[in-house]
Amino acid sequence: MDLDRTERTRAGRAEVGLDANQLDADQQGQGQQDTAPVFTPDPVTLAHLELILNGGYPLPGFMTSEEAASTIKHGRLPDGTPWPVPVTLPVPDTLADAERLVLADPEGAPLAELDVSERWWCDDSDRDHEHGHRLAGEVRFARPPMYGVLRHLRMAPAEIRGQRAIGGFADRPLLAVLADRPLHHRSLHQIRAAAEEAVEEGRAEVLVIINTPLDDEGLTAAILAAEPLLPPRTRFVVTTLPTRGGAHTLPTGRYDLLAAHVARAYDATHLLIDRAPGTPAPSEEDRGPAPIPILPGAEWRYDTREELWRHADQVAPDRAETEPGDAEVEEMLARGRELPSWFTPARVAAELHRLRPARTRRGLTLFFTGLSGSGKSTIARGVAEGVRRAGRSVTLLDGDVVRRMLSAGLTFSREDRDLNIRRIGYVAAEITRHGGVAICAPIAPYAATRAQVRAMVEENGDFFLVHVATPLEVCEARDRKGLYAKARAGEIPEFTGVSDPYEEPTDAELVLDTQDTTEGESVAEVLAALRSGGWLPDHN
Ligand SMILES: Nc1ncnc2c1ncn2[C@@H]1O[C@H](COP(=O)(O)OS(=O)(=O)O)[C@@H](OP(=O)(O)O)[C@H]1O
Ligand SMILES: Nc1ncnc2c1ncn2[C@@H]1O[C@H](COP(=O)(O)OP(=O)(O)O)[C@@H](O)[C@H]1O
C-alpha cells in the first residue's frame, strides 16, 4: 500500500476542510478510550520520538529543563554523559498542564505514552522551535509506527544487530555512511576507499544510513540505485534525523555528533558523512569528541587526462574536472540534459531523471494573484490556450468559477478566503502530481496562504507565481463588474483593496503591470517566461 499517498490525501483533506473524519474514525475512537489527551508532535519532535522508541537514542524520553540546558551549553547531560542536541517536547498552551499524554502519529494513531515528570517553559529557542511550553518525562512504547513511507527500511538498531549476528558478521567493523543526497561517483569512491583502507583493510561491512524526510521516497530510490557500486554486503537503513536547518543555537558539528550517536546504536564502529562538494567538515575542535570516529573522508577528483577518479593530491588542478553542485544537477535535470557519466553512475542518473523529469514533462502550478480587475482571468485564459497549443494538458481554476463550484457558500472573511485558496491549492497540487499544468487565478490576498500552496505543490512538482500588479486605481477605473463602485458605496463589505487587505507578494517569479500593455502582450510575457524556464518547448 502506498502509505505516503494515503497520508498526504488525509492531511490534504483535513487542510482543505473536507471530511477527513470518516477515514480516521478508528484511530479517534481509540484515542477517546484513553483519558490522557492525544497529541501529534511536529515533524522534528516525531523524528526524535521514533529514535527514542527504536533505540536509536540512548534516552528514555524527553528532556527536563536542566537536561536541555546542560546539553545546549556543554554538549553533555547533567551526569556528564556526552549528548549533542536537546531532545524536548514542545506542546501548545492547552496541554501545558497535562500529567499524561498519548503521543500519536500524524493520522492520530497512538505511538507512545508520556508520564510527565516536569512541565517547563523554554526561553531559549532550541532547534527550530520558538520558546514555549515543554513537557518532560519517560515515554512508553504503545504501538509500532506505521506512518511515513518506506517503513520496511526503517529498521531499528536491534534489527540490524540481529541480522549481522545471524550472518556471523557481528564481530566485524561496521562503517556507517550517513547519506542525505544521491551518491555520485566521488562519494562512492570515498565510501569504497574508507571501507577498504581506513577500516581494518577490507574487513568492514557498510551500513548506509539514509537520512530523509518522512514522506520522501525519491532520495532513497536514488541512493539505492548505487547499490551495485558499493562494497559487497552493504546494508541500508532509512531514518529521519531531526532537521539540521534549525540548529542555529547549537555549535557547529552537533548534528554530526548526533549522527555518530545514532550510528553507534546500530553498532557502527566508524562513521563517514557524505557531504556536497566543497562543504567542509567541522573540525573536531569545533564539534567535540564523537562516540565513534568520524572519518574525514579522502578528497577525490576526476582527472580529465586519465579519465578516472583519483585522490585529489594526485590530480593537478588544471586537469581536475569541476563537479556540478546539487543546484546545478537540479537544473540539468529540469532542462532534460544528460548528467555526465564521469560524474554519476548511469543507474543513479536514470533514477534521478525518473524522479525529476524535465520541466517540459513535469507538473506545474501557474498561480496568478492580484486585485479584482487586475487581469488575472483574462491573462490566465490566454496562457491556458498557449500552454494547450504547446501540447500540455491544462486545467484552469479561475477565481470566479471556483467560487461557484469548489467553494460555493464561502464568504470573503479571512478564514473563508484562506480555505478557498487551500482548496484551490490542493486540487492544483493533485493536477501537478499527475504531470499536468494547473492554472489558478484567484485574488489570494494573504502571503502565508500562498506560501502554504507553494509548499503543497512543490512536494510533487513546480510552482510559478505571477503577480498581476495592476495598481488599484487602474482596476477601479476599469470596474468591469461594477464591484468597486458598490464597495465604495459600502454595499460590499471586506472588498479587497478597498476595505480588505492585499499583501503584495515578494516571492513572485514574474510581476506584470497591465496598465501600459495589451492583453496579448501580457499573455505573451507569461508564455515567454514558461518557455525560457523550460516548462514549454522552445519551438512553440
Ligand atoms: N469582498 C470581496 N472582495 C474581493 N472580491 C470579491 C468580494 N466579493 C465578491 N468578490 C468577487 O469575487 C472574486 C474574488 O474571489 P476569489 O476567490 O478570487 O477571492 S479570494 O482569493 O478568496 O480572496 C472577485 O473576482 P475577480 O474580479 O475575478 O478577482 C470579485 O468579483
Ligand atoms: N494587459 C492586460 N491584461 C489583462 N487584462 C487587461 C489588460 N489591459 C486591460 N485589461 C482589461 O482588464 C480587465 C481585467 O479583468 P479580469 O481579467 O476579469 O481581471 P481579474 O480576473 O483579475 O478580476 C479586462 O476587462 C481586460 O480587458
From TrEMBL:
Compositional bias annotation for Low complexity: 17-34
GO MF annotation, one: ATP binding
Gene3D superfamilies attached to this UniProt entry: HUPs (3.40.50.620), P-loop containing nucleotide triphosphate hydrolases (3.40.50.300), Sulfate adenylyltransferase (3.10.400.10)
SUPFAM superfamilies: P-loop containing nucleoside triphosphate hydrolases, PUA domain-like
Enzyme nomenclature, EC number: 2.7.1.25
Bias-annotated ranges (Basic and acidic residues): 1-13
Domain APS kinase stretches: 362-513
A single cellular component GO annotation: cytoplasm
Keywords assigned by UniProt, alphabetized: ATP-binding, Kinase, Nucleotide-binding, Phosphoprotein, Transferase
EC class name: transferase
Domain ATP-sulfurylase PUA-like: start-end pairs: 30-125
Catalytic reaction annotation: adenosine 5'-phosphosulfate + ATP = 3'-phosphoadenylyl sulfate + ADP + H(+)
UniProt similarity note: Belongs to the APS kinase family.
UniProt-recorded name of the protein: Adenylyl-sulfate kinase
Native species: Nocardiopsis gilva YIM 90087
